[in-house]
Specification:
This protein has 195 residues and is an alpha+beta fold. It has one domain: Porin. Helices cover 19% and strands 41% of the residues. The chain is built from 5 helices and 12 strands. A 12-stranded antiparallel sheet has the order 3-2-1-12-11-10-9-8-7-6-5-4. A hairpin with a 6-residue loop joins strand 1 (12-18) and strand 2 (25-30). The longest helix is centred in the C-terminal third of the chain and has 13 residues, at 177-189. The radius of gyration is 15 Å and the shape is globular. The protein starts with a helix and ends in a 6-residue tail after the last helix.
Length: 195
């Protein structure tokens, strides 16, 4: 099994994003022993989002790409591709209008068939976050084939966005963990811009 596949086969991760960054965003995904598994440097002011996920901060070992299909699309679709094999892993589509009130993404497999959703925890908490206080941590549930496949729970920190990622049920629900990691990256990159 390749090093990249070992990294993506963990059941639990911690994702971090520094809030203040002048030259684009940096995201880090660690395993439970705080070893770096994935790194993203999202450049600022890109019209068409193209994100490369690396396994190292030196950006020497790309693992997957997350590529927007169109320029600045409010309800954009992002294709996830494994860099080593060139295989399309799947796609994630933001539900633009719905996400104004409560973040929602649809997940698609490599054949373009919708397999699930990534949904913010509750409408009431989402409304509080948007209109009263962004100090209420977000939570997301990933549902695949009608089953809860993963959860992403934000920890409150005013300087660093942190998500505890639980993928322990992903495989039994048929969720490719690469697609789950890509969804966390997109939540940090796209949804984080609204706060």
């Amino acid at each position: 099994m390749s090093q990249d596949m070992v990294l993506v086969n963990q059941d639990r991760y911690l994702a971090k994003k520094k809030i203040f960054s002048m030259f684009g965003n940096k995201f880090y995904v660690f395993d439970t022993q705080e070893n770096l598994c994935f790194f993203v440097h999202q450049k600022a002011f890109k019209l068409k989002e193209a994100i490369t996920v690396y396994r190292d901060e030196g950006k020497q070992h790309p693992v997957m790409t997350i590529q927007a299909r169109s320029i600045m699309d409010f309800s954009g679709t992002y294709d996830v591709t494994d860099v080593q094999t060139g295989q399309v892993v799947g796609a994630l589509k933001r539900q633009g209008l719905k996400s104004m009130l409560r973040d929602e993404w649809h997940m698609f497999d490599a054949n373009g068939t919708q397999i699930g959703t990534v949904m913010e925890d509750s409408m009431a908490l989402a409304m509080i976050r948007r209109f009263l206080s962004n100090l209420v941590p977000q939570g997301f549930t990933v549902t695949v084939n009608g089953q809860e496949a993963a959860t992403f729970q934000q920890n409150f920190n005013p300087f660093v966005a942190k998500y505890d990622i639980d993928l322990s049920r992903a495989e039994q629900c048929g969720l490719d963990k690469r697609l789950a990691v890509a969804s966390v990256v997109l939540l940090l990159a796209i949804e984080g811009k609204q706060q």
